[in-house]
Design goal:
Blueprint lengths: L1 E4 L2 E4 L14 H10 L6 H16 L7 H12 L5 H7 L4 H8 L12
Antiparallel strand pairs: 1-2
Helix pairs in contact: 2-3, 2-5
Subcellular location: Cytoplasm
Protein name: TusE/DsrC/DsvC family sulfur relay protein
Family: Belongs to the DsrC/TusE family.
Length: about 110
């Protein structure tokens, strides 16, 4: 699979994850979100930046929803619930958020 971005063909796997994570940029993330009918807010970016930091700076860790809830509760200074994250990324915060953030598909089972 692939999609067009900035005059280039970007290769993805069958589930829409980038084949080459180095292709990703913030503008591409915005484009990918638009393809999934998501309008990115600061909170979306907080989640995506957290996922990217964990992956690239912490041994390719791909946090599950529980870890994202804990991290975003701390970052936002309020206790959030699973539903708060699913409002941002309805198909699964860790998987859909990771895909839009340019990360490879997580192979772990379950989101919580």
């Amino acid at each position: 699979m692939s999609f067009e971005f900035d005059g280039k063909t970007i290769e993805t796997d069958d589930n829409g994850y980038l084949v080459n994570q180095e292709d990703w940029s913030e503008d591409m993330g915005k484009h990918m979100a638009e393809l999934e009918n998501i309008e990115l807010t600061d909170r979306h970016w907080d989640v995506m930046n957290y996922l990217r930091e964990e992956y690239f700076d912490n041994g390719q860790v791909q946090p599950n929803t529980r870890a994202i809830i804990k991290a975003m509760s701390a970052a936002w200074g309020e206790k959030i619930k699973q539903g708060d994250l699913y409002k941002l990324f309805p198909l699964d915060p860790s998987k859909q958020g990771g895909r839009i953030a340019g990360l490879p598909e997580s192979r772990r089972k379950g989101g919580y």
